[in-house]
Design goal:
By secondary structure, the chain is of the alpha/beta class. 51% of the residues lie in helices and 13% in strands. The protein contains ten helices and six strands; from the N terminus they run βαβαβαβαβαβααααα. Strands 2-1-3-4-5-6 form a six-stranded parallel beta sheet, with helices on both faces. Helix 2 (39-49) packs parallel to helix 3 (65-75), helix 7 (155-166) crosses helix 9 (181-195) and helix 7 crosses helix 10. The longest helix has 15 residues, at 181-195. The chain is elongated. The chain starts with a strand and ends in a 10-residue tail after the last helix.
């Protein structure tokens, strides 16, 4: 195990960044090398500061956590990315794994769990929060469902993406799906993050290229 672990904390919430910084400052074997408030800042910090571990939130402004992890894996593959997020759905976990994350914890994890996870990924291990490891094994071993586009999205997110491809706005999508407009906005944010698109127009192009937005889309 690395005797002194240098960590960068990437989260768009100052309370989380400050809390993690305070926690890690109390651990003699860990040093907080820097913090980042956006995905782009996280990539820059990884390249310039070269930490041993980068703790990353899944949903980040400018560049999503999955996309940022993918860039870090390309630019600095020796850096271990540990996802620390509130999202525990299978699609998010699998997307993070494919991007190169070595660990995945939920923000409800105990402080000692977070410290152990940082130490583990710094030592080259893969670590997942309770209950996630079993699901990860199932995700890896299960064959992909044929004929379904964007299998990284949930069925609900594909439904929202189909409405977007048709040209529907958020209020119309909310009415047709009988959900709150805020829920629609949350789904869209997750879709943009998973598809690695910057805006609605790019999402529409990706969706229509995959066959969504037609009379009988595969969703």
């Amino acid at each position: 195990m690395i005797s002194s672990i240098r960590v960068v904390i990437a989260d768009d919430h100052p309370v989380v960044r400050d809390g993690l910084s305070a926690l890690l400052a109390s651990v003699p074997s860990v040093t907080v090398a820097g913090v980042a408030a956006t995905g782009r800042e996280a990539v820059d910090a990884a390249v310039t500061l070269r930490p041993d571990v980068l703790v990353m939130d899944l949903q980040m402004p400018e560049l999503g956590g999955v996309a940022a992890t993918r860039e870090i894996a390309r630019a600095a593959p020796d850096i271990a990315v540990l996802m620390l997020t509130m999202f525990d759905d299978d699609d998010s976990v699998f997307a993070a794994m494919r991007a190169g994350a070595r660990g995945y914890l939920l923000k409800g994890a105990q402080q000692d769990e977070i410290i152990r996870a940082i130490q583990a990924v710094a030592a080259g291990e893969a670590i997942f929060g309770p209950g996630i490891a079993r699901r990860v094994l199932g995700l890896v071993s299960a064959p992909p469902a044929p004929g379904i586009p964007f299998q990284g999205l949930t069925s609900r997110e594909r439904e929202v993406l189909n409405h977007i491809a048709v040209g529907a706005r958020n209020a119309e999508i909310a009415r047709q799906m009988s959900i709150a407009p805020k829920t629609v906005a949350n789904h869209i944010s997750a879709i943009f993050n998973k598809l690695q698109v910057a805006d609605r127009n790019q999402a529409i192009i990706r969706a229509r290229d995959a066959g969504l937005g037609r009379n009988n889309p595969a969703i």
